[in-house]
Amino acid sequence: MTKARLLRAITLAAAVTAVAGPVISGNSGDYLAARQARLTSDFDAAVYYYVRALGDDPRNPQLLEGAALSQLSAGDLPRAIAVATRMQDAGIASQIAQAILSADEFQRGDYQAVLDRVAEDHGVGPLVDGLMAAWAQLGKGDMSDALTAFDTVAETKGLRGFALYHKALALAMVGDFEASEAIYADDQAGPLQMTRRGAMARIEVLSQLDRNSDALDLLNSLFGTDLDPGLAQMKSALEQGETLPFSHVTQISDGVAEIYFSVAAALRGEATDDYTLIYSRVAESLRPDHVDAILLSAELLEDMGRPALATRAYRRVPRDNPAFHAAELGRADALRKAGRSDAALEVLDQLADSHGNLPIVHTTRGDLLRVLDRFVEAVAAYDTAVSLYEPDDPSQWFVLYARGISHERLNQWADAESDFRTALQMNPEHPRVLNYLGYSLVEKDQKLDEALGMIERAAAAQPDSGYILDSLGWALYRLGRYEEGVGHMERAAQLMPVDPVVTDHLGDVYWAVGRELEAEFQWNRALSFSPEDDDATRIRRKLKVGLDAVLAEEGEQPLEVAHDTTNGG
Questions:
Q1: Any idea of the CA torsion for 300, 305, 310, 311, to the nearest 10 degrees?
Q2: What is the 3-state secondary structure (H, E, C) of 287-318?
Q3: 460-569 carries CATH number 1.25.40.10
Q4: Cα torsion angle, 93, 96, 99, 100, sign
Q5: Is the distance from CB of 217 to CB of 386 less than 8 angstroms?
Q6: What is the CB neighbour count within 10 angstroms for residue 392?
Q7: Paired residues of 271 in beta bridges
Q8: What is the model's pTM?
Q9: Are 317-425 and 460-569 the same fold in CATH?
Q10: Disulfide engineering: 229 pairs with which of 35, 322, 381, 446, CB 3.0-4.6 Å?
């Protein structure tokens, strides 16, 4: 099944089309403000202005849909239900309203209303409607009709995996674990059973069948030894002979929440973030303890540039949940993006106290300290992270790389080089490590031939990286191969047009090949990009006396003359 066909099958065909251009009576300013807020994903502001606009035009379909959509996106389902109900009473057709009202009906146990809605073609979309009908039949106690409904959806091209996965969940919910496992064992449920949630559901089914050994084998084969707390908790219980409860779907609304979450997960990266958010919000509204849906909503909000809303979502994950550390890591990141680094560090400090056995906690804390130029503390955090790995665990390469950067910034080059080289042993040919080590060697005028080779390999792996091409051009410059460096440095400057270091380097290379006017132009540009104070002072000195004089003042070797120092080379 193509991605395009999947998207057509599972999405709200006209979810936001009506919001685009309504005819507004009364105060159009509120509508314009609402629309702008919506376009920038400022959902709280969008709700405010849509409600104000509705005061002047209370029956406008586009305003009503915009308000409902914004309320849902902000995570306020009760207010969204109220608006959707107004739309239904007014006979206004809206798939957004249908999705909201269906969620409300499942929450209230009004399964017949859902079936009537689907039968009248007032649903959400082919996949969602079919699965909702199946779960509604099960809610009414009609198991036979429910299974038939799941099978009907499975007959639709491209939807078989979704349908049979949900059929397996429904069978497990009513206690028919043998029939549920039969679907899994026949690989009929498709790729969904290979997701983390799908695999955990099957592991619970196997445990219910007194097949803990098979459950352990499945867990180990899919996830290996690097387990998050949730999986580690599950593994420990299995090893101790405990029977895992089937927790993934315990009531009908849980099954419907799983529909929306499955769709949201499928849409991630294929549809826009605001569109995907609709599905994850419905999922978490139907099941407030659906931590995966909460985390997905929070991540989407972060990606949409709404850290405050993301933080609000992350805080909904309870402390005793195995995913609490993931939520707190996300919350710290959202706080950092909001410019609240101190608050983010406080979150990570507390997490290090409560979840100090997890390397990722200390690594993330080290990363933030490094961004804050608190390198001594960053090294200490990375040291703790490294101590929690097995000595030869290759997954620690990034920690060593990050620690190496911190050592380098502290002028502890021996320690930095050791970390970089160990990271390369664990993750050979990684371009970021090759580039950082190679560039550092160039800056220190050490092992230049080896450094150049490292940077060339990094550039071959990432030929469109401005940072790496800058390193390559600069290494050639330091080796006296000025003409060879020009093209790479020019390409780096194209890729990073406002970077002061790259622009400064380009000026130096131009000067080395005799293009002095162009060099001075680039140095002046570099000054306009707010370089660090020391770099700015050096650039001004070059503009006054030239690069050759500055090198002489610094006790450096003079430039090897490429050719006559005439403008333009």
A1: 150
A2: CCCCHHHHHHHHHHHHHCCCHHHHHHHHCCCC
A3: yes
A4: negative
A5: no
A6: 8
A7: 268
A8: 0.83
A9: yes
A10: 322
Element (H, E) at 351: helix 341-354
> In this structure, are residues 458 and 435 in contact, taking their beta carbons and an 8 Å threshold?
yes
Amino acid found at 324: F
User: What phi and psi, each to the nearest 5 degrees, are found at residue 271?
Assistant: -115, 170
In this structure, which amino acid lies at residue 551? L
Distance (Å, rounded) from C-alpha 43 to C-alpha 53? 15
Beta bridge partners of 268: 271
Q: Tell me the pLDDT tens digit for each residue of 119-178.
A: 887 777 777 899 999 999 999 999 999 999 999 999 988 888 889 999 999 999 999 999
Q: What is the pLDDT of residues 453-495, one digit of tens each?
A: 999 999 999 999 999 999 999 999 999 999 999 999 999 999 9
15: left (phi > 0), else alpha (psi -120 to 50), else beta? Answer: alpha
Class assignment of domain 317-425? Answer: mainly alpha
In angstroms, the CA 538 to CA 529 distance is 14
| Token couple for 198 | 């799908």
Domain range annotation of the chain: 317-425, 460-569
In b/e form, how buried is each residue of 404-437, taking b as 16+ CB within 10 angstroms? bbbbbeeebeeebbebbebbbebbeebbbbbbbb
DSSP state of 558: P
Q: What does the alpha-carbon distance between residue 150 and residue 130 come to, in Å, rounded to a whole number?
A: 7
DSSP string, 92-153: ---HHHHHHHHHHHHHHT-HHHHHHHHHTT-SS-HHHHHHHHHHHHHHTT-HHHHHHHHHHH
